Batch of 2 targets.
Target 1
Amino acid sequence: MKTIKEQYWRYSLFVLIIGLGVTIFVELIPFIGGLLGAATIYVLLRRQMHYLTQCRKWRRSLAATVLLVEAILCFLVPISLIVWMFVAKIQHIALEPQSIIDPFRHVAELIRDRTGYDILQPSNINYLISLIPKVGQWVLRSIFSFGINIIVLMFVLYFMLIGGYRMEDYFRDLLPFNHSTSRSVMREVHMIVRSNAIGIPLLAIIQGIVAYISYVIFGVPSALFWGVLTCFATIIPIVGTALIWVPLSVYLALSGGWGNAIGLTLYGTIVITHVDNVVRFMMQKKMADTHPLVTIFGVIIGLALFGFMGVIFGPLMLAIFIFCVDIFKRKYLDGTSDKLLFVPDPKKEEPAS
């Protein structure tokens, strides 16, 4: 009877944990961006936290406050400025719709003259008008959600910094591996997060700068705005920056600037597109050598699951999946000893918890 009762307690506790966990996760879905953002920034700042608290002997609350200010200045302020730039652009369009109607009408007339197709026919106009309220509502919801997630991010990040390595030790003990394998898994997670959290934004910024220079040279209107959009377009698999500079080249050609259009097309094909390969090759020597297919499919999966933060956590999730499959193969199929599963790299060792 005792054994049956113990099994009842065990399985009841298991069901209770699963039920409460699913309920909590569903309720936290609106804040998933802030939670994932806090986890990402924590991984980037954890070494600084270790240095301040262990080497400089700062109080954990003081060190966490200083690093939180650093996160705000280095991560949140630039992102907020970019969001504000888009909001200002939308407000300008709302207050002066003629600023976008005139160029659109000009392009529509050029297309009609050259192809005979009238974009401004009533059916198309009615469809565009029906989209305006939906786009406006989506923008307002996105801005509100962004602000809420920023607050959640700062709040959670502070307590993650305070908890530090005790939190990591707790999660490490929950992993279904022995101690040495768990440490290797955590080290791999940290390395992949740093690689994606630093590498993907850095690659986007470099390509955006390179594209912005070409937009200025070839006379693209609102070059800075399109340069920022090019930064975000780098995260879109396969198409990437071509989603921005190809339509801009077409616009220049339809406007009569054939020289600028050809120049931007050649620059985009030869320079902007290949900057991705060059920078990625250079970063692979300093960070995790993630296969391009993992990044591509990871971004596709991550955007569908997590939204914008999926750019980082999509490739992470896919890389961890491949990592776990490799553990299973080497341990249970190949019969490799636990001691030989992972060979620690001194250069990549994390500070002791």
Target 2
Amino acid sequence: MIEPVRPITIEDIEAARERIAGTVLRTPLVRLELGREVPEIWLMLENLQPTNAYKIRGAANAVARLSDAERARGVWTISAGNAGQGVAYAARTFGIPASVVAIETAPQTKLERMRALGATIVPVSYDEAWKAAESHSYPGLDGTFIHPFDNHDFIAGHGTMGLEIVEDCPDVRTVICAIGGGGLISGVGSAIKALRPDATVLGAEPETAAPYALSLREGAPQKYADWEASFVDGAGGKSVTERMWDRMGPVTDGSIVVTLDQTAKAMRLIAEKTRTIAEGAGGLALAAALTGQAGDGPIVCVVSGGNIDLDKFAEIISD
């Protein structure tokens, strides 16, 4: 039975922070020095997490919240790589098996890391993975399912980023998060709106896959008919589900759509200024901030992950 959607409370998020404290890092908030003509921008480097992506926050909280009986069955999730690594990492911590219904076109580095963490990989097409995410099921897997974005505890774990943002940048005016399924922005937005209700929370989506911006224009959850695969594999879904529409709506203020070229330039800039690697999804928030559509700073951009094949990264940023 799929539990009803309910608000993520600040108490949920604070409890999650205590629960995952021994597993995740408090990632640094780094000022991006770009001159006076650019708004004040800060980068939250979630690409420095043990799995090089923010998903470990939600996964660690979700697995920790399971009962002994639920954990005994093993866990499984659906992933393009980052959620799978997070769930596999958390499962290994508890000594339980994990399986990942993995998008077969995911970067090789993500697939290899999931296997290295002990996960059993079930390769599927993007369409099959998205159908499984919408139905919360996959034939032949009967362990405990941990949804990669539509899961209350998963989202509460992501909300811990919001606590850190407000503590490290108390005068924050805008927070930008990449949108794939919507779990990241739902968690971070829940924390920001509870602690800084006047702050703006914006999504960032690639032009090839921007269903939330479309849904906001239409006033209801939409499928993105012109969806295209790109190097931004960790964000940009084919649609916004009814449940995630209900989750995101109360805690977000819009979504900025960026080009692939803008995203690649943001990835390069992150590498130049922080000497860290951002994958495509990790560059979206900064790309959005640099459009000028996010207003004045302080703007905090969540660099959501850095799991990308190095040869591909070099190719993207050198074009």
